[in-house]
Amino acid sequence: MDVSARRVIDQPPEVVARYAMDWRHDHEWTQGIKRAELSAPAPGGGFGVGAEVTRTAHFLGKRIDYVLRVLAHEPPTLLVMKSVAGPFPMHVTYRFDAAPAGGTTASIRVRGDAGRHYRLVGPLMALFVRANLRKDLRDLARHVG
Question: How much is the pTM?
Answer without folding.
Answer: 0.91
